[in-house]
Write a structure and sequence with these properties.
Helices cover about 80% and strands about 0% of the residues. The chain is mainly alpha-helical. The protein has a domain of about 120 residues. α4 packs antiparallel against α8. The protein is globular, with a radius of gyration of 21 Å.
Length: about 260
Amino acid sequence: MAVATIVIALLPTYSQIGIWAPTLLTIFRFVQGFGYGGEAGGGVVWALEFASPKWRGLVNGGVLNSSMSVASLLATGLLLLVSAYYPIGVIGWRILFLSGAVVVIIGLIIRFAAPESILWERKKEEGKIVKVPLATAIRRYWFSLVLVILINLGLTFVFYAGYGFVTTFTKLLSSYIPELQRAFVQLTYLPLMLGSIGGIIGNTFGGYLTDLFGRRRMLIVPTAILLITIYPLYLALTTLSIPIMALSLASCTSYSP
């Protein structure tokens, strides 16, 4: 993931290599995604194997899910900082990708320094380490695997639709309404940062609630609420009111029981 991030930051422009510029960008974004997906899943398992069964909801649903909102908060803040000194469309975006590589490298160092979990070491001593875990999961636990994928599709859609949609929506709207162009930063990045803070609080508290009331109940109840509120939440973005937009985004990003 670090290599892909650095390569993206150093990619030649379209005027230099033509169609290969967006092609290589797409390829290395896929590499980033594969790297993140593998490392994030492994990180969750590793953390849960260390966590006490009593607090696994707080660790997984709370702390680990909150890290996405923490990352969004830091990234948005860094974007505002860099854009104040460099044009984002020219050199600023490259600086942002290079800064992301630094974080990944720090994570890599931690990864090598961290010990394996006691549970994994015990399985290793017993000779019960599965050689091809994916094949075993598909063969023995395919139904549970499908359920987990479907549940996470909902979580992922709501989270990224909230963050991705608000930026695209306000930018498109500001291109049609000149009066909004000057307020684009306020209408986009400030709600994103406030929404991220709401996501941190909501995820942490929600994870704690799963330890108190159970995983199943804390999946069903928020999902039912979301089915009713998702339309007014996104409709609230059209008000172009920073407090209302921030509340809407916080609700979307907090949905990870």
